[in-house]
Fold:
Amino acid sequence: MLYLSTKYLLIMSDSPIRVHFVSMECYPCAKVGGLADVVGSLPKYLNDQGAEVTVFMPKYRMKWFEGKSFDYRHVSHFYLHHERIDYGIAEVTDANLGFRLMVIDIPGKMDRNGVYAGADGHFFGDEIQRHLCFQRAYLNFIVLSEHTPDVVHCHDHHSGLIPFIMQNCDGYRNLASLPVVFTIHNERYQGVFPWTMHYLLPQFDSWKAGMLDWGNLINPLASAVKCAWKVTTVSPSYMEELKYNSMGLEALFHQENHKCVGILNGIDNEVWDPATDPFLTSLYEGDVDDFKLKNKLALLEGTQLDPELPLVAFIGRFAGEKGADLLPGIIEESLRRELPLNFVVLGTGDKWVEHQMGILAYHRPDKVAAMITYNEAVSHKIYAGTDFLLMPSRVEPCGLNQMYAMRYGTVPIVHNIGGLKDSVTYFDGDNGTGLKFNSLDFYHVFEEFQRAIYLHGAKKLLTTARTNGMDADFSWVKSAGQYMDIYRSVTGR
Structure:
């Protein structure tokens, strides 16, 4: 029998848990949505609580990567069916992100000016091959590494085949005992492809095919839910909603419920700090109303919008899940009803929505300002300068915009689902942080608009709602502790 000294056990218990994040996005390197914000901030807070996180992401041909220093640790190749794939793994030595960043350099697959689509908005069309190459390159690196992690933490379907490959594919089975945690940021995107393309996967025993299959398709997201040791979603309410509305995966989430947990996302309070934000014209110095007014005047400078009226913002992707297709109709109806509201919109995506917003801004510049783009600096200015943030989401796994808004004293008006339900409490005149509607229709949205108009006119109530939001704690500290509990449970630490 082997006896370990007390000194050795103490060292083991105090040593950091080594975690690899595997993700297609990471702020500020490459961002499309909230996935990037999570991967770019959570590791810092995990490191503060006893982890040692390294983020692995593709090396894109995007602005952030220009001029960076890359220390290549591994260069090799593999075959994707008959295609030779050359790749390299490099550490970005001057990333200065608060965590270690490794990039996976795959010429011809990942060296593009975009994460999922080019600058013209068109998807690349070879997503399946790109995602498989990314996952294979990462696994080839760790299967040969002398310093394997204690936990592999995969994010969304782009890394969803990693658990299956580790446990079932030739050449990787020595990784089968390595714990994998899988986080679902949005189940609407599952990465499915037909069985006729199974040859792109490494060799595996055919009797294990059921761990890949859902609905007679290879489904990376479903496979990860089946194979991962723990599955997390980005809010508790969203975890429950997946059992009843998850694009055909409802039975799977019931089946795997024992290993699923919802953890509400947080935000990086250092990046989103109204007292120090370099993007803002005026910083917060203790008077929320003064802070909001100064930033509102700066935001509306050069526009025809009246700063005396309540200003409602929409920030985000023009996508159906965000309810963006409802936005033009909501604004048009507000104009028809002659509601004393102004609107500012920042976003890009669905071309019809882009076109409609452009038309509204052109014909009613006194009521609507629209920026058909995404600009990080402008988003900070909007959070600081607007009175209300509208989020008519059909699906919202967590949502970060409402947290940013409250951090900057903007009152959210949200559909009461998913993470919005968990993070926004209804303002009752004393307690609460925002306004919520339970049904996504004009009647309920405009009911909350009327309350917003009243709230804006009742200055003391508005100040209270703003202050409540700014005082709410949405930092990553609590959520990081919950992830640490999961890491300890799967490693036995």
